[in-house]
Amino acid sequence: MDDLIADFVAECREMLEALGGEIVAWEAQPDDRARLDSIFRFVHTVKGNCGFFEFPRLEALSHAAEDALADCRAGRRTPDGPLVSAVLAVIDRIGEMVAAIEAGEEFAGGDDTVLIQALEPGAEGPAAVTAAMVSDGKAVSAPRTIRLSVELLDRVMSGVSDMVLARNELARRLRETESDVTVDGAFERLSGIIAEMRDAITRTRMQRIENLFVALPRMVRDLSGELGKQVLIDIDGGDVELDREMIEMIRDPLTHIIRNAVDHGIEKPADRLKAGKREIGLLSVSARQSGNQILIDIVDDGKGIDGKKLVEKAVAAGSIEAVDAAKMTARERLALIFEAGLSTAREVTSISGRGVGMDVVRSNVERIGGIVEVDSNPGHGTRMTLRVPLTLTIIPALTVSIGSQHFAIPRAAIEEIVRANGTSVTLDSIGGAGVATIRGRRMPEISLADVLGLASDVPDEERTLVVLRPAGGDLYALAVDRIHDHEELVVKPAAPAVMATGLYAGTTLADDGSPILLFDPAGVAEVGGVKLEMQERAARIVEAASTATVRDDNVLLFRGLDGNRRAIRLALVDRIEEVARSSIRHAAGQLRVQLGDVILPLAGADALGVEAGKEGGEDKVRVFRLSDGTREIGYVFREVIDLMTIDHEVIPAEHPGAVSGVSLIGGEPAELVDAHWLFAQHLGATARAAEQVVCRLPSDDAWIQNMLRPIVEAAGYLVIDEHDELIPDVVIASHPGAIDDDHADRTLVLRDEPEAGIDDPSIYRYDRAGLLSALKAASGGKGR
Amino acid sequence: MSQLLLIVSIGGSRVAFPSAAVESVVELDTLIPVPRAAPHVAGLSALRSRVLTVIDTVRSLDLGETDCSDGIREAAVVELDGHHYALIVDSVEDVVEAMSDPSPIRAAMGEGWERVALGMVETEEGPLLLVDVAALIAGPTPEARVA
């Protein structure tokens, strides 16, 4: 009997969860038959089961709701606001009762007759609140599922992991011995099956993020009702899959952010009208996958966050100095909401007090290796972005070593990696404590070898500094002997005796099956004696003065798609991204790659232009994101080899091109990528000159606006019309009568006929080359 | 009540582990040290895809230190609170049946042994000390003991 009740409770819970979204959608469209049906099915199921289990109160409630809904289904009654609210109240009560049954308690609270009366036609229900959900319209029918214990799943997963290791071992043995072709074939097949199985079993841990989203419409509806606001919630990307445990971990932070958005972001209807916005506030929640991260955006069109007010609060609260406050960038100001005890809300309501608790949100998200970003435009709204790794157990990490032992550092905490002997780095010892100054930023420096008490044979100046930002803390530099590789590691919790050191976040297995310890960056700092306080702002010292001359000889050695060893200056590489081949396309005259929201020109695939988009091969390629400070291009490559310095002579290339020269790096020749040429080539016409030449075009001439303007803009001119206050460097007129006396000497006149009359300086309007050279001449050589 | 016991020798003494606690007996080859961990944590090793925390039992009993440098060591694998441990022993001898419930030992033992002793059990091979595996893992410092 207990088993049956447990099943009943579990079933009710699942249905309740799924129903949350349905019922609000039903309210928005009361004639939606599919939704009405699914709600009816729920109360019907509950009623049926209650009779069997003898839960009379539950039965009476569900029976009443069923009757009311049956009338609606039969067309005897039209569902209206009061009915929806009454049904909602009944369903809530059912949820409470089910929870009580699960806990094995007698459910005492509340009188059901009020709820049942509210279901009667014409009953005075609570005032209907408006909230609606925009969705794709259809009721979603859940795929067939069964319930499994997580323990069983974990056992299957570890079995599959064992199998993969056993396969690797077998593969090694097979390589060592002379083996039969047929054996190899069979092994290949087995290998393929195991890989497939691992994918499938990994997916069993995944759950659609929809499970997290279904509860949101209901929550927003209730909240906005309570606050007298009107909020439309738009949900997108519910089909993105995420590790089950991860979904649980982001439930609270997400709820908190949404509560904040409704409570403090979106204004009351009257205020919105005053601000010239629609009465109904828009809250959009969307999830998407980008690389190995899931991005969840929560965007509202409310009043935004006032950075100045935050700063004032922070100064008043004493968490920052007024002098520093003046130097903060807009982004840093907004980031203040994550500091404990700051709230810009004039009154703290029962729902939330923006600021209070955002520090908790951030630390919760960071605990699972995620990041929270905030962006706000005062008066127009706020965007919060949660970036979380795909799974809780797979963590991208950098492997480093001290002596012969390898360790891993979570990549999320790494800000940058620099050579201790690089030109932009100075190491000082102040009272025995290490201080590193990296490009004007001063930070504590500790040696991993000292922290761990391990012997290291690498002298201080030849070490590599890993600049870390632990969750909620400040930058510090960790000196390690060697940097090895970026890897995706399957991390497991370590035994208490290991965790007691405070240094480690878990353990993982390397490819060869040997264990590796994963560091907890905050723990390492603490054991190393670094004080992690909010001191970073003070640490930013002479930044502006020194950035102008950053030039170090650190290069990233990599293998191009064609297999050649190449090197690129590290400072140019913004980051490395892994993209699907399908996101590389030939578009608008050159190869382009889509990275998240942006499309960048893509270099590095010239020789293999077709190959980059070809079917088959690896599905993923790696792309450097190169930046010249303002513009970005992508550079596709096969793999990173190492971080090196140029210490040999560079032999320049004979012709300018993608490679500027060749040098011995790491004992073998490597081609140096000519970044200047790449940017010049790939940004091409789209690159803007620092000083743009202004060209004025008549706004009333359709031919000029539609045909000429794109050409002029593509040539790098800033196009304005007559009403613009900018003084044009050159003016184009469509006929001699349109010449404006002020700019007569800088005006180009176009004519419709190919043949020019005598002494006619005008230009035939389809003479592209002539037009562009005349433009250049008229603008006094300022153009390009 | 008859309990199966695994007879092992630690630091030259023959003692018994409750065999229900022991998952398997393995030979450890690689050992990755854990810097800064308690001294009786000899390091980490891998058993298939599982990470084992290796406990130097001799060190845990304050009887000295096992020399782990010379290749293969025998160890008993036990699970405690979801974590797997390998307890390094001199040798694993036999599995025998306990002929009595553990009874208190009134003689004075070494301090280390006192901490891990569950009592004395009678076996066919004479009386043996029954060892509390959890206490062995927790090691000599009471602060480091994790509930």
Please explain how this structure is put together.
The complex is a heterodimer of chains A (784) and B (147). Helix content of chain A is 37%, strand content 27%. Chain A has 24 helices and 36 strands. In chain A, strands 1-3-5-6-8-7 form a six-stranded mixed β-sheet. A six-stranded mixed β-sheet of chain A has the order 11-15-16-14-13-12. In chain A, helix 1 runs antiparallel to helix 4, helix 9 packs parallel to helix 10 and helix 10 runs antiparallel to helix 15. The longest helix of chain A is centred in the N-terminal third of the chain and has 27 residues. Chain A starts with a helix and ends in a 6-residue tail after the last helix. In chain A, 33% of the residues are buried. Chain B has 147 residues and is mainly β. In chain B, strand 1 and strand 2 form a beta hairpin. The longest helix of chain B has 6 residues. Chain B is globular. The C terminus of chain B is likely disordered. At the A-B interface, helix 6, helix 17, strand 18 and strand 19 of A face strand 4, strand 5 and strand 7 of B.
Number of helices of chain A: 24
Distance between the termini of chain A: 85 Å
User: What's the average pLDDT of chain A?
Assistant: 76
Uncertain segments of chain A: 125-140, 344-356, 534-551, 607-616, 685-690
Low-confidence stretches of chain B: 143-147
- The computed structural class of chain B is mainly beta
Secondary structure tally: strands of chain A: 36
CA radius of gyration of chain B:
15 Å
Beta-strand portion of chain A reads 25-35%
How many strands, which pairing sense, and closed or not: the largest β-sheet of chain B?
5 strands, mixed
Bin the strand percentage of chain B.
over 45%
Distance between the termini of chain B: 28 Å
Total beta strands of chain B: 10
Count of DSSP-assigned helices of chain B: 3
Q: Percent helix among the residues of chain A?
A: 25-40%
Topology:
The complex is a heterodimer of chains A (784) and B (147).
Chain A: H1 2-28, H2 33-53, H3 56-74, H4 81-103, H5 112-118, E1 131-134, H6 150-176, H7 181-204, E2 206-208, H8 210-213, H9 215-227, E3 231-236, E4 241-243, H10 244-265, H11 269-274, E5 281-290, E6 293-300, H12 307-316, H13 322-327, H14 330-335, H15 358-367, E7 371-377, E8 381-389, E9 394-402, E10 405-410, E11 414-419, E12 425-430, E13 433-438, E14 441-447, H16 448-452, E15 464-468, E16 476-480, E17 482-492, H17 496-499, E18 504-509, E19 515-519, H18 521-527, H19 536-539, H20 543-547, E20 554-559, E21 565-569, E22 573-580, E23 584-587, E24 590-595, E25 598-603, H21 609-613, E26 620-627, E27 632-637, E28 639-645, E29 650-652, E30 659-665, E31 668-673, H22 675-683, E32 693-696, H23 702-714, E33 717-720, E34 730-733, E35 747-751, E36 763-764, H24 768-778
Parallel strand pairs in A: 1-3, 3-5, 10-19, 14-16, 21-31, 25-27, 32-33, 32-34, 34-35, 35-36
Antiparallel strand pairs in A: 2-4, 5-6, 6-8, 7-8, 9-10, 9-17, 11-15, 12-13, 13-14, 15-16, 17-18, 18-19, 20-21, 20-28, 22-26, 23-24, 24-25, 26-27, 29-30, 30-31
Chain B: E1 4-10, E2 13-18, E3 22-28, E4 41-47, E5 50-56, H1 57-60, E6 73-80, E7 83-89, E8 91-97, H2 111-116, E9 117-123, E10 126-131, H3 133-138
Parallel strand pairs in B: 2-10, 5-7
Antiparallel strand pairs in B: 1-2, 1-8, 3-6, 4-5, 6-7, 9-10
